Amino acid sequence: MADNTRLGLAKNAKRDEFYTQYSDIEAEMNAYVEYNPDVFRNKTILLPCDDPEWSNFTKYFANNFERFGLKKLISTSFAKGSGNLQLTLFEMESPLYDEELHDTHGKLFTLTHDTNGSGSIDSDDIEFSGYLKGDGDFRSDEVRALRDESDIIITNPPFSLFREFLCWIMEANKKFIIVANQNAITYKEVFPLLKENKMWLGQGFKSNVGYFSAPMYEDYATAGQHKEGYIRVSGVMWFTNIDLSKRHKFLEMDTLEHNLKYNKKLRKKLESEYGIIEYPHYDNYNAIEVPFTECIPSNYNGVMGVPITFMDKYNPEQFEIVWQASGNTRASAPKSVLKELNYTKHDEDRGGCSVVHGKRTYGRILIRLKKGV
Ligand SMILES: C[S@@+](CC[C@H](N)C(=O)[O-])C[C@H]1O[C@@H](n2cnc3c(N)ncnc32)[C@H](O)[C@@H]1O
Asked: How far, in Å, is the centroid of ligand 1 from the Cα of 194?
């Protein structure tokens, strides 16, 4: 079964119990700290949907508390999450431990200072601050209040509630770094934020493939791709509104003529799909189809449809996002944009997907080069 399909199933079945590796968190956070060494200084970071005994987010930020100059770390767990179900010495040895509340209530952990007198602040100083009034749902009033108290929200949230989770962050106007499925790019709640440069993609997982610890789930990766103890999930990304250098990197491009003449991958694709070596024009949009991000022509001034993974290379100084061509474009795009794109309804477009020679393409982002770049 394809990884994306499995992720879709995970989403439908609300299989949200998979845990991010320490090394992946570290690699991602390094990108922000390299860009701005003070990015976390004097900040309160909230790690919701988490649990320090189960998740590496709390461990990572606790271990780097002093280096980053953090003000406060807050971590909350969800009662129904498997991390919460495990009873650990950490909780049991606390005077706040309550057997009954353990099963039904979320937990609150904080870190602000050197609690054990070791002379430094690290994960040994995390304090179990007691049980939440409810189950730790991020939508509860008490976790909402913790959100409001914080400067930055960082986590791998439940994928099945991703839309709600992002809205929950945006309504409080907070900074964030969160893990998501790449398909979220096209969600009608997400895409406008990307288009308006209110959020962007983070450094990312290697080839957009993540290995997550998920003791409860079976891994369907092929033998060559399987890693013991982990599930392999393709199409995972980090979304953020904190700046990093990747976002300012210019994509190297070749001219339209050179791409058509020398790019073997492009030639093969155009030849096999359309039988002619030229960038095809869509049937329903005034734009051309560019099947690979690497083949975006440097000298085409009109609108181009590119794969959604283009967002991983998107530099707002180089490109303008006009809109997306997807199943919700007709309903969600402003009339002025549809007019600008000269959109005409097509029998095959299922609400606005791009169509070439009567055939729907994969979801596309409609972009154009910025003038003078
Ligand atoms: C993808 S896991 C990630 C866990 C952890 N943040 C990490 O990356 O290691 C998402 C977590 O969110 C929890 N969760 C599910 N629904 C939730 C909700 N409504 N509020 C808070 N947490 C929730 C799940 O139990 C699960 O542990």
From this structure: 24
Take residue 212 and report the two structure tokens written for it.
């997550």
Distance CA 135, CA 101 (A): 9
pLDDT in tens, 258-290: 999 999 999 999 999 999 999 999 999 999 999
Same domain? For 25 and 153 the reply is yes
Secondary structure element (H or E) that encloses residue 211, with its range: strand 209-213
Domain membership flag for residue 251? no
Q: How confident is the model over 305-356, as pLDDT tens digits?
A: 999 999 999 999 999 999 999 999 999 999 999 999 999 999 999 999 999 9
Query: 161: Cβ below 6 Å to ligand 1?
Result: yes
28 lines ligand 1 (CB under 6 A): no
- Given a cut of 50, is residue 7 above it in pLDDT? no
Same domain, 264 and 142: no
Pair (31, 152) in one structural domain: yes
Answer yes or no: is the C-beta of 52 below 6 A from any ligand 1 atom. Answer: no
The rounded Å distance from CA 160 to ligand 1 centre is 10
Phi then psi for 89, rounded to 5 degrees?
-60, -40
Measured in angstroms, how far is the CA atom of residue 137 from the centroid of ligand 1?
Answer: 9
Tokens found for residue 106: 């979320």
At 66, list the tokens: 């002093």
Nearest alpha carbon, ligand 1 atom 4: 19
pTM of this structure: 0.93
